[in-house]
Amino acid sequence: MVGMRVIKSAAALLSVLVPTASMTDLFVYGTLKRGQPNYFRMTDAGNGRAEYLGTARTVERLPLVIAGKYNIPFLLNVPGTGQRVRGEVYRVDAAMLAFLDKFESCPAMYQRTPARLEVEEWAGEGGPSPGSVVEAFVYSTTTYQPEWLTLPTHESYDHAGDHGLSYVSREYRD
């Protein structure tokens, strides 16, 4: 049927029935960005709602590394080291936030923490202007291997970047 959605969870159903429910701003820097391997998860209405707001970069320098046997991008929660990381800001509903917490293994692998971001570009009218500072949650980690601190850091992640480290999607992991 045209216009019908499959609702996969009670949280997703709630997001449809109560569209004005609390929304959370979230900064993504890795495989959840547009054009990256897990972006489809952000657009799957069965996971909840995610509205693209714009692009930004972290105010603080943080190490964005590609690590592990699956070449996963990790933002290490080590302020003052690394680079000002570029990414995208989304406004997500409670269902999407719950989905992403589970997807990101929060809090075991990643922790959702607030970050200050400098706006680069904002979608639509009436938003913050470039150079403005906003706050959003980000999935970073304090649970990393010590040697990850010696890995090259990146300003921006692209799964097909010149780093030569191909991301391995969950469907292809052993």
Chart the SSEs and their pairings:
Elements: H1 10-17, E1 23-28, H2 39-43, E2 50-58, E3 64-67, E4 72-75, E5 86-93, H3 94-103, E6 111-122, E7 133-140
Helix pairs in contact: 1-3
Summarize the structure.
With 174 residues, this protein is of the alpha+beta class. 13% of the residues lie in helices and 29% in strands. The protein has a five-stranded mixed β-barrel with strand order 1-5-2-6-7.
Describe the structure.
This protein is α+β, with helices and mostly antiparallel strands. It is 13% helix and 29% strand. The chain contains 3 helices and 7 strands, in the order αβαββββαββ.
Unreliable stretches: 1-7, 12-20
Mean pLDDT: 90
Distance between the termini: 37 Å
Helix percent band: 10-25%
Quantity of strands, as a count: 7
Largest sheet descriptor: 5 strands, mixed, barrel
What is the CA-atom radius of gyration, in angstroms?
16 Å
> How would you describe the shape?
globular
Number of helices: 3
* Share of residues in strands: 25-35%
Structural class: alpha+beta
Question: What is the chain-wise order of helices and strands?
Answer: HEHEEEEHEE
Q: Give, in spatial order, the strands making up the sheet with the most strands.
A: 1-5-2-6-7
